[in-house]
Amino acid sequence: MQVPLVDLQTQYSTIREEIRAAVDTVLTRQKFILDTEVASFEREIAEFCSARFAIGCASGTDALLLSLLSLRIGEGDEVITTAYSFFSTAGMISWIGAKPVFVDIDPRTFLMRSEQVRHKITSKTKAVVAVHLFGQCARMEELEDLGIPVIEDAAQAIGASHKGKMAGSLGITGCFSFFPTKNLGGFGDGGLITTNNEAIAAHLKLLRAHGQGSAKYLHEIVGTNSRLDELQAAALRVKLKHLAEWNAKRNENARYYYSRLQDLPVELPALEPGNAHIYHQFVIKSQARDRLQNFLSEKGIGTAIYYPVPLPLQPCFSNSGYQLGEFPDAEQCANTSLAIPVHPELTEQQLDFVASQVSNFFR
Questions:
Q1: Which domain holds residue 326?
Q2: Residue 39 and which of 48, 140, 178, 296 are 20 to 30 A apart at CA?
């Protein structure tokens, strides 16, 4: 039996006609840049996330970049973030000339240790980028109490919530990615920023379009070109209608794994109190991670390692002074974590096969 880590072909087969009709509408209209599909998608996502404003952009990476720029962060500033995430979380901080300052993670949840943030604040600290990793929210209340703007890196958490408040409505901005493998994935790159701040929303709209406002060829600020395409927005609007159902199925699959794997010598992901998880990934931990991954691969089961090198230890940050052993929990997770299939297209037979093969490995 083959069990891919992600099964986009099966997903597409269930919505093929809806997608084709939506795309054909755009092709017939022949308006591809910031037209009605993007505007409608922005309204729908804002409502979905309980945010006042949503601004589409070219990628989740750009969502982070534009959010930092909207707060006027730049050369010489510091931004605190997690040591354990996808590279763009720290990469965009560095790209604008600021310094990423890292904190370790809770190894049970993979989320940044908010209690460590307070000790990293200096006069140069301008923001915190909190990552809602693998589909559940960081401890936002503790971060907001610090009085520093908090940017949500919610690239993996669309539809997640904390104490009834949706990811994307908790910080000064929320950054989403529509990379194809995300819970809400497009047909290429795409991203979006949510905010409840009207001034920031207006600034973001300028930043994504070369600083051009309503008057063509008049540029109020120096911006860039980072726009969500009409074709992507049309497809994403179709998928958004199914997102709650797909996220619910991910939760159902996760519950199955919790019941089947709880007595094995693997550590299962912990749920932060008050969180509604959407299980972008179901990440287990094992001291025998590499052998387990090879075993599952031989059985036809797709897996992935998120993330094999903590951010402070990336070669590009080698001059920052961070040392091996400084972030022990992030390093431990990097060496032991393994994502197994949890996507909503899994059949009961596939779920049983994955759980059975993980069990067989430890016999």
A1: 243-361
A2: 140
CATH code assigned at 136: 3.40.640.10
Amino acid present at 220: E
Q: What is the pLDDT of residues 156-171, one digit of tens each?
A: 999 999 999 999 999 9
Question: Within a domain: residue 2?
Answer: no
Q: Other CB atoms closer than 10 Å to residue 164's CB: what's the count? A: 8
pLDDT at 320 over 90: no
Which uninterrupted H or E stretch holds 247?
helix 230-261
112 vs 39: CA distance, rounded Å: 34
Collect contacts of 208-214 with beta carbons under 8 A, ≥24 apart.
208/55, 208/56, 208/57, 208/58, 208/62, 208/66, 209/34
Count the Cβ atoms, other than its own, within 10 Å of residue 325.
7
Q: How many CB atoms lie within 10 A of CB 216?
A: 6
233 and 247: one domain? no
Do 146 and 128 form a contact (C-beta atoms < 8 A)? yes
Please tell me whether residues 36 and 123 are part of one structural domain. yes
